Amino acid sequence: MAELKQFKLPDVGEGLTEADIVTWRVKPGDTVEDGQIIVEIETAKAVVELPSPWDGTVARLLAEEGQTVDVGVPIIAIEVAGQQKTDDAERAEVPAPAPAGSPVAESPAAEAPARQAVLVGYGVKASSTTRRGRKTAQPVAETVVLAGRALAKPPVRKLAKDLGISLASLAGSGPDGSITRDDVQRAAAADSPARSAVMENGARTAARVAVPSPGGEERIAVRGVRKHMAAAMVSSAFTAPHVTEFLQVDVTETMAAVRRVRDLPEFADLRPSPLLFVARALLIAVARHPLVNSSWDAAAGEIVVKHYVNLGIAVAAERGLIVPNIKNAGALPFPELARSLQALTETARAGKATPADLTGGTITITNVGVFGVDAGTPILTPGETAILAFGQVKDTPWVVDGQLAVRKACTLSLSFDHRIVDGELASAVLRDVGAMLEDPVRMLAWA
């Protein structure tokens, strides 16, 4: 005999309290297998794919794309064959969706059993983490209902969600009558300038409000990765005393080395860039000056020096700035460092970085040069002592052996926590990185 089971939003990382539903990969009536990806969610750190815990048939989606859902709240109902072994705590009657516009007196998460739902491979055991209390839903003035069958791509669906526009009411101007971003934005401009936040079945949809008047305003809900980034930057800026030093470097030889490396068989399937040499130079500099790769433990009154390097690379992803890191980067051979660097940035830009990728970093590089910027004063990644900004490489007048020449040059900017690193140490690190980029052979001598 088949039974109806709820899959509750699991804790995919320590301290997670909520996540946004980004894209459903299944719909009611679909057959799913244990381990099959059924939904993408966005946490405060990354977009995570959730697998089905059972074989069965999708009965109902209990949360919509764009909604924010508390951990422990059911998000999907699956009809499972009765012979499958289950825990009694996981068996529950699936409630019918609340009527549109009806208030929710209490989040279902408040009634969840003590046994927390934790995604295999992530999270922590029940009771090991203290979370903030679940928020109680409040009555709302208006509920925005979106059609789930309109022909539109997922980003367009999400935009419509954020703007509170019903896709069912739109005539698509795209191929085969599909709805485009312009269609949604035109509808928003003609609609009411204000939308309410939707609360249904314990899930909350934060609206993006567009004001149609010329020269008006647009309000974008701060959540997910961007919310986490903002909080982290504020905490870092007002906790650690930041100081930034700058060094202009002639990187002509490094640029030539990049071209030579691209022809080596070990790099045949890769696209080595100057960032690879900057990363290697920083790793060697850290080995020569370990204190720059440390953290400040205020509670213990200690400086924690890390004798391993998890190298963070700041990436401007679609959902905001994230800093995935290469684990134990200092121990990697040069080709493997190149491979890890390329894979990490591609994964991050595609929005597929995992919570494990985004935690445990010890020192960071931010490549502002790709945006055509010469230099900056980067803010430290929380918990780290230094961050190196790599500016754009461009033709620059340079004096070589007493003669004026045109060389490839860039500016390095090193921000550091002045509680741990003083000016002398910071200067030594920056000078070492610059020296290795001026003459890459030094990387062999100092490694």
Briefly characterize the structure.
By secondary structure, this protein is α+β, with helices and mostly antiparallel strands. 22% of the residues lie in helices and 25% in strands.
Structural overview:
- The protein has 447 residues and is of the alpha+beta class.
- It folds into three domains: 3-111, OB fold (Dihydrolipoamide Acetyltransferase, E2P); 154-221, no CATH class; 227-446, Chloramphenicol Acetyltransferase, CATH 3.30.559.10.
- Helix content is 22%, strand content 25%.
- A hairpin with a 2-residue loop joins β22 and β23 (403-417).
Please tell me the overall pLDDT.
79
Low-pLDDT residue spans: 84-146, 192-213
Q: Do you know the CATH topology of the largest domain?
A: Chloramphenicol Acetyltransferase
| Class by alpha and beta content | alpha+beta
Cα-to-Cα separation, first versus last residue: 65 Å
Globally, the shape reads elongated
What is the count of helical runs? 8
CATH architecture annotation of the largest domain: 2-Layer Sandwich
Number of strands: 23
Give me the CATH superfamily of the largest domain.
Chloramphenicol acetyltransferase-like domain
Task: List the domain count as a whole number.
Answer: 3
Q: According to CATH, what is the class of the largest domain?
A: Alpha Beta
Using the CA coordinates, give the radius of gyration: 26 Å
Largest sheet: number of strands, sense, barrel closure:
7 strands, mixed
Instruction: State which percent range the strand residues make up.
Output: 15-25%
Search tags:
about 450 residues, alpha+beta, OB fold (Dihydrolipoamide Acetyltransferase, E2P), Chloramphenicol Acetyltransferase, six-stranded antiparallel beta sheet, elongated
